[in-house]
Amino acid sequence: MFRRFYSSVIKAPVIISNNAWDKIRDIIKKSHNKHGFLFYASSGGCNGFNYNLELIDEDIHNEIKDLKIKPNKIFDSEYNKVYIDPKSEIFLIGTKIDYIKEDYSKNIFESKFIFIPDKDLATSCGCGVSFNPK
User: Fold this and answer.
1) Domains contained in the chain, CATH given
2) I need a labelling partner for 112 at 20 to 30 A (CA). Which of 22, 86, 96, 125 fits?
3) 105 pLDDT exceeds 50?
4) CA-CA distance, 70 to 66, in Å (whole number)?
């Protein structure tokens, strides 16, 4: 007898921390003619794929709006958007984007975005930019 199991767990495509939204908002405000960020995975790195968070300008924003397959959008406000590349979405589900500030007392020597994969869906290496889907 075969049984089929269905998961009732629904994962958010991507989770963005308050610290990351604050930094995204700050970057967009200081950048002229920028319309958000594109979050995508590219091949490479020490673990198979790399996380990429790219600031997009008006031309790329308009291309995204014209796509037949619309990317998922995560809004903080009307002007602060993170688009998830449709081709990469399957690899990025459950990833958390955070932003850490340098704090020498905690041995954090640079401010940067960090990407934390859902441990049920991917593994990452020590660099924090490379990951491998399970």
Assistant:
1) 14-133 (2.60.300.12)
2) 86
3) yes
4) 8
